[in-house]
Amino acid sequence: MARILIAEDAADVRDALERALVAAGHQVCARESGMAMLREVTRWKPELVVLDLGLPDLDGGLVLDMVRSMSEVPVVIASGRGHDKDVTRLLLAGADDYLVKPYSAAELDARIRAVLRRTQPEPPALLVVGGLRIDPVGRQATIDGRDLRLTRLEFELLSHLAERRDRTVPRAELTRRLRPHVPAGGRDTIDTHVYAVRRKLGESAARPAYLHTVRGVGYQLGAPPQVDGA
């Protein structure tokens, strides 16, 4: 389900947690020290950190501060320190949850899933413009049920216009949106991609249905009137 980084100095506990979380569907990277864990935060980029406070090289509270200085990754403290002042201090310092030992692997997994639900962004919603359906997660687009078979650049162009349905999108804005996806040395222009998208939509610049040119400015995507009124 998620990439989980564990910092736990007790080998038996570390191994047991790793086995249990892998069995629960997670990818797990387990380390025995604070410094080793911090290296993995930048190298492996976990989706959540499980942090013990009693590490051999650095106090867990300091490790939490260091993690927060470099990343927004959610952190679940899993420690034998259960005093209210410790819990309060570390939650205020940026921990997302606090679990006191002893605890079960099932409880830890449940806490991890709850934190991820709170902290992970919602997936983009389906974009609908008349008979046009665009799925940003699955990166698929259909028109009246027909697969459009778009290239990566065409999909980015059409998605951006659909996100701004019925608004004129300047050419400069489209250029900025597509720039990260243009191969090095590529000379394709916005016009080239608009032309390709129009052909796949089954229309042309002279007879547009969805994709309209706003001369001297940019483009606008909107549903044909008969589609909206259906």
UniProtKB/TrEMBL annotation:
Residues modified to 4-aspartylphosphate: D52
List the Gene3D superfamilies hit by this protein, alphabetically: 3.40.50.2300, Winged helix-like DNA-binding domain superfamily/Winged helix DNA-binding domain (1.10.10.10)
A molecular function (GO) term: transcription cis-regulatory region binding
Offer one example of a GO biological process linked to this entry: regulation of DNA-templated transcription
Query: Its GO CC terms?
Result: cytosol; protein-DNA complex
Q: Residue ranges of the Response regulatory domain?
A: 3-116
Where in this chain does the record put each OmpR/PhoB-type domain? 124-223
Domain of life according to the entry: Bacteria
What positions does the DNA-binding region cover? Answer: 124-223
Q: Which Pfam families match?
A: Response_reg, Trans_reg_C
The residue range of the signal peptide is none
What are the alphabetically sorted keywords of the record?
Answer: DNA-binding, Phosphoprotein, Transcription, Transcription regulation
Protein name, per record: DNA-binding response OmpR family regulator
Organism per entry: Longispora fulva
Taxonomy of the source species: Bacteria, Bacillati, Actinomycetota, Actinomycetes, Micromonosporales
